[in-house]
Amino acid sequence: MKVLVTGGAGYIGSHIVLELMELGYDITVVDDMTNGNEANLFPNNQFIQGKIQDSSVLEKAFSKGIDAVFHFAAWKAAGESMTDPMKYTLNNLNGTFVLLDAMLKYGTKYFVFSSSAAVYGAPKYLPIDENHPTDPENYYGYTKLAIEENLRWFDKLKGLKSACLRYFNAAGYDPKGRIRGIEKTPANLLPIIMEVASGLRKGFEIFGEDYNTEDGTCIRDYIHVSDLAKAHILALDYIRTHNESLTVNLGSENGYSVKEMTKIAEEIVGKAIPHKIVGRRAGDPAKLLASSAKGKDLLKWEPKFSDAKTLIESMWDLYKSL
Ligand code: UFG
């Protein structure tokens, strides 16, 4: 089966590429390498450098015949999306439409979409299931929701079958150590903690300790990227065999606070990781927790690497070697 992975040299994309390689798929990666890492390109796959907004780039990929697309080429910094929304419009929205246009033109029927729990906004109840109202708090989350809505239309109008995968807090690295390129300029908690532990930065800040949680810091649902990768393959199988679209949460259903994660990381790296407590970051809910019951049931999927220790160990194995 021939698949296109947009953003396949990036953090999540490269882990999906690994999983696809293990299963023997014929893989084409399109990546403009802004956030992609050369170390994450594997020699047996076809690689086309360029932007998804550029239809001539996509033409090169689709002309060889593509059966399914995994779409990761998007910006993902929620804070930045509030100050530079047009950057997100042009890539996350426009870019995806150019991609969908190419799919329709070439008759590619299956689309696996990297969506986000950011589509829900502030939680109205926990754990968050797929029926929770969608009301994004940032423009990034809005771009994901807008694409999801369009995918439902393109299913109705054009028979395009999609899997919208709403990730909670993706983290970790391939436990077998095959991904060597770290994320460039990360904005998320765990890669920042790892950068401090490995000496790439001096310290980090904990955004608020006055939340209504046991230790006052925010609780999140961390999901290992290799568990995510498995779910992507199962999701493609599902939409193909059932010939129907799918929207599912991908989370571990376990919550850890910022302080808990810091402590576990300190135990794993065997030293203190310098940090200070500062004020709250705008738009952070106290607690996010997924219900992944639907995905587990429909996809027969179970996270294997998403307990905090395994997850952070898999990151430290890479960061300690930098
Ligand atoms: N945090 C810090 N210091 C930092 C970075 C983060 O204290 O330097 C805290 C945040 O305040 C938050 C927690 O760590 O309480 C996790 O923050 P992240 O920035 O790592 O992740 P978010 O929960 O904000 O968002 C992530 C993804 C979103 C997704 C969301 C779903 O980036 O795309 O998880 O749960 F929607």
UniProtKB/TrEMBL annotation:
Keywords: Carbohydrate metabolism, Isomerase, NAD. Signal peptide: none annotated. InterPro entries: Epimerase_deHydtase, NAD(P)-bd_dom_sf, UDP_G4E. GO terms for molecular function: UDP-glucose 4-epimerase activity. GO terms for biological process: galactose catabolic process via UDP-galactose, Leloir pathway. It comes from the Bacteria. It catalyses: UDP-alpha-D-glucose = UDP-alpha-D-galactose. Its EC number is 5.1.3.2. Belongs to the NAD(P)-dependent epimerase/dehydratase family. Homodimer. This is UDP-glucose 4-epimerase. The lineage of its organism: Bacteria, Pseudomonadati, Spirochaetota, Spirochaetia, Leptospirales.
